[in-house]
Amino acid sequence: MIEMIIVALVVIWSAVVVFKKVFPKTANSVFLSLSRFCEQKQWHTLAKWLKPKSTSSGCGGSCGCEAKPDMKQIKNDEVKPVKWH
Q1: 20 near 27, Cβ under 8 Å?
Q2: FRET pair for 13, CA 20 to 30 Å: which of 19, 55, 77, 81?
Q3: Could you tell me the residue ranges of all domains in the chain?
Q4: What are the DSSP calls for 41-53, one per residue?
Q5: Average pLDDT rounded to a whole number, residues 70-78
Q6: What is the Cα 13 distance to its own chain's centre?
């Protein structure tokens, strides 16, 4: 019985993570509405936990795009040999 509960929790957690990665805007709106609902019910701690983090631009950075436009990635085109130990 305990194993089934643990597996169910892992599956639910994985589904939430995938939902947030695949649909970041929808996930933000869903979690914002859940947070507002919890605020109305006076569940302040849960509301804080559910409230999505605000970002300055982009889709929230959870889709792999850059969250900040001023971040620059350093590209190294130099070919490096593989060292086997």
Answers
A1: yes
A2: 55
A3: 2-50
A4: TT-HHHHHHHSPP
A5: 57
A6: 11
